[in-house]
Amino acid sequence: MTSASQSRPWDVHRLPCAEGRIFLVTGGNAGIGYFAAEQLAGTGAVVILGSRDRAKADAAMVSIRSRVPGAHVRHLQLDLADLSSLRTAVDRLELDHLDAVVYNAGVALDDPPRRETEDGHELMFGTNHLGHFALTQWLAPLLSAAPAARIVTVGSFAARSERLDLGDLQSTQDYRPKRSYGRSKLAQMCFGFELDRRLRTAGSTVLSVVAHPGGALDSLTPSRPPVGGTTLGERLRAVPLAVVVQGKDAGAWPVVRAVLDSAVQGGQLWGPRVFGLRGIPRREPVPSHMADAAVAARLWAVSGELVEADPDLGFR
């Protein structure tokens, strides 16, 4: 990256060149993950879509290639709800390094009943948080082999109003789907900040950054056939909401900046400029409940026990 590009204000429509770099986006076949993958592909980087659904990943790659001529995209079969499959999935990457991973994939349930993963964990906590926590251990050697790799955890605005219940992380005593989702995203964000603290202590060159999309609605999102689209009526009804929120294409901007911007530092939080809900990406102050090192350390310890991970997740 030239000094001129470093001094130029960040432009979401003129991203820096990333040719030769390799990025993995979990859940890159839909939503925020798809648009992050599309935008990253436009930089010349190799973008790997981590997805358990091959057909949806194929559709996403068709869409990206139609909009980014010459895009370097590929699929990785990845199921974060099946912890035993993650090491094999990483082995299938057949890479000697990885420049960044975006932890975007997630499950959001609106209604009971409570569901569990193959490993017996509550589905949203198990997939959104524990799956990425466990994946980090297997990606650690590839990230450490890159000159300055990044782990970008995609959080949620919903996590601001939640608090972790360390005595009931998996909602076995009181299951409320929307609250459990918000807490799973809060767990992810706390993990992202704690991971960077541990990486700095270990003297690692890898950075951990947290980003969130603000308020991102399907009805304000540009159509991307065959991935998805909205009707004209849906788009028209959503026009008044654009004053407050945005589409998922814009929701991906803070994530992409967290991956690419050389000025971004570990332990930072990035989100939309306007009330944290819409607009161009900016750095945000980390809310105190997300920055609580004591809570994060307890979450880390419990998570490590649940997934039977190395205490350092492979970073030393």
Automatic annotation (TrEMBL):
Domain of life of the organism encoding this protein: Bacteria
Native source organism of the sequence: Streptomyces tropicalis
Protein name: SDR family NAD(P)-dependent oxidoreductase
This protein's UniProt keywords: Oxidoreductase
Oxidoreductase in keyword set: yes
SUPFAM superfamilies: NAD(P)-binding Rossmann-fold domains (SSF51735)
InterPro entries according to UniProt: NAD(P)-bd_dom_sf, SDR_fam
PANTHER family: PHOSPHATIDYLINOSITOL-GLYCAN BIOSYNTHESIS CLASS F PROTEIN, PHOSPHATIDYLINOSITOL-GLYCAN BIOSYNTHESIS CLASS F PROTEIN-RELATED
Keyword Oxidoreductase: yes
Pfam family, one: adh_short
